[in-house]
Amino acid sequence: MSLDYQSACEAYEKKEYEKAFELFYALALEYDVSSQMNIANMFLHGIGVTQDVKKAYSWYEQAAKKEDPEAQYIYGWYCLENAKEQEGIQYMAKSGDAGNTDAVYDLASFFLNGTHSCEKDIQKAILLYEQAVSLGKREA
Questions:
Q1: 93-115: pLDDT as tens digits
Q2: pLDDT at 2
Q3: Which of 36, 68, 126, 138 has the fewest CB atoms below 10 angstroms from its CB?
């Protein structure tokens, strides 16, 4: 963990949100994925910065492209909810392949019900539910 990232986390923990945002933002511009996720969350919830959902999802997208499974999951849902179903499914699948239990579970339900551009496929749904169970998803 870099000193700057640690300083940003410490500022955030002390509720010095504007300072934390500035530090995370500088790191995010250098393609630090954890900082990109923090910036996205801060924009989404208006923490230390004016709330801006569009900017939040732009940062989630950047982190998703850098292979962050949580960002892929969040951005995947954003795509699904904004008429970009194919892109959303691709990000959900990448997230699931990286072991994100929520992504695996959600994909299973898409195939079970034939939703979000997923053709109904009971066998695939069962395999995904089994995978979700093996990853610790109790609801599966």
A1: 999 999 999 999 999 999 999 99
A2: 63
A3: 138
Structure tokens at 138: 């109790």
From 41, 38, 68, 61, select the one nearest 52 (Cα to Cα). 41
What's the whole-model pTM score? 0.91
- In order, the DSSP letters of 93-129 are HHHHHTT-HHHHHHHHHHHHHT-TTPPP-HHHHHHHH
Distance between CA 49 and CA 19 in Å, rounded?
A: 10
Alpha-carbon gap, residue 68 to 34, rounded angstroms: 9
**Residue 117 DSSP one-character state:** T
Of the candidates 90, 95, 94, 101, the one whose C-alpha atom is nearest the C-alpha of residue 128 is: 101
What is the reported pLDDT for 75? 98
Burial degree of 127 (CB within 10 A; 0-12, 13-18, 19+) = middle
Look at the block and give the residue holding tokens 């892929």. 72
The residues of the chain scoring below 50 in pLDDT are none
Residue 43, both tokens:
């924009």
